[in-house]
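Q: Okay, next protein. This is Acylphosphatase-like domain-containing protein from Proboscia inermis. I've checked the sequence twice, so it should be correct. Can you predict the 3D structure?
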Amino acid sequence: MSASKNMHSMTVRTLLLAGMFLFQILAVSSFCVVPPQAKISASHLAMSSNTDNMNEVVACRILLKGDVGGGYYRSCVKNEATQFRNLCGTMTPPDDDTAEIYVEGKRKTVEGFVRWCERADKKVGMSQIIKVESVSYEDEPTGLYDGFYIGTN
């Protein structure tokens, strides 16, 4: 009887150890483990404490130069501003090879839109070349726009 009791206690012990091992695997995989060599920079801490600043409503003027009269680029600007970023504002009709974009929205989305415009500095579509000449932030948004509008000649 002692041999079967020892066998039973070994089986229970093995099952308990296997259960603890599985629990450790599940616990580690379900939580974010930061390796000790990973450092959190001061900029990351500033960004996390500055979330109110990222949600404030700002206005921005972007001056573009290049093939801004093309319908493809202008429709891309409208789609990016309205459908993807939920911004309000306008794009002026092309004057020779310059146009101005005025956008209003949360700082985070406006800055993302500016980065999108700058990304298209080289080539848009098949042959349109656009360059961002300047970016300036306004003191206060006007609040005049309820959507994004494209001006035409």
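A: Here is a summary of the prediction. The CA atoms of residues 94 and 127 lie 17 Å apart. Confidence is low (pLDDT under 50) at residues 25-49.
Q: Noted. On to the next one.
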